Amino acid sequence: MEMLFDPRKIRAVVSDMDDTLLNDEGKLTPYTIRVLKECIARGIHVIPASGRTQTSLAPYAEQIGVDCPYIACNGAQLISPDHQVLTEATMPPELAREICSWLTGQGIYVQVYRGAYFYYEKDCAPSAEYSHVSGMKGQAVGDLMAFIDYPVPKVLAITDPKVVQRVMPEIRKRYEGRAEFTMSKPFFIEAISCGVSKGNALRELARRMELTPENTLAFGDSLNDISMMQFSHNGVAVGNARSETKAAAKHICLSNNEDGVAHFLEENVLNPLKKEENV
Predict the structure, then answer these.
(1) Half-sphere exposure of 128 toward its Cβ, with a 13 Å CA cutoff?
(2) Measured between alpha carbons, how far is residue 258 from residues 164, 222, 240, 253 in Å?
(3) What distance lies between CA 123 and its chain's CA centroid?
(4) What is the pLDDT of residues 150-165, one digit of tens each?
(5) CA 135, 126, 19, 186: dihedral to nearest 10 degrees?
(6) pTM of the predicted model over 0.90
(7) Phi, psi dihedral angles at 120 (to 5 degrees)
(8) In sequence order, what are the beta bridge partners of 15?
């Protein structure tokens, strides 16, 4: 099989989590964990890069045994190997209130974050489901606009995918130059500070860790992963990825439910390195 790239040059594996590294049950399989740990043992950094906040992402980083900073909150947070927030890009409270007000005016559920908690107006199905999936604690605060009096790392709206498709172009135009809007799942609208992206966070880590587009593998499935593909010369979309993400990637691997990332790493990085060692 022809090599896609020189495996000896790979120094970092950067991967989205939900619907990419995690299966549909939201879990890392034993096989995926084994492959990622072998990469780390060989000196290849494994960098989770997720829309999840530090609190929600840290348990997965712990399972993997991450040995370097990683990316949370769609790039708004850089997290240390011991799971502390190193840097955080936030939007002013007045902007967060304005965005939340506009979204709720469209009849859409919204929530904001601070520390280990997420906050919303009143208990409902989306808040309960999000708490279950993310592992985070949620708190109903009544008047959400009055509650938001602090800088916010991310606003998350949850609604029907058809509503997302209708609203996304309008909200991007409305807040152009003031906030960024992306999505990690078809039913999410995620607002972050202007200039924040996974790709820009990866560029900052590259500066700190002496990584390059040539020695970095980037895996993803959704719109918020495209900026990482634009950094790496070796972007890989999982088989279940959105068409836009596949178009931005250089390679396609198996789906998240088939351990696509792990198989790609084993076949194109680990096995060639082992074969070379045994020659």
Answers:
(1) 3
(2) 28, 17, 10, 9
(3) 26
(4) 999 999 999 999 999 9
(5) -160
(6) yes
(7) -155, 175
(8) 48, 219
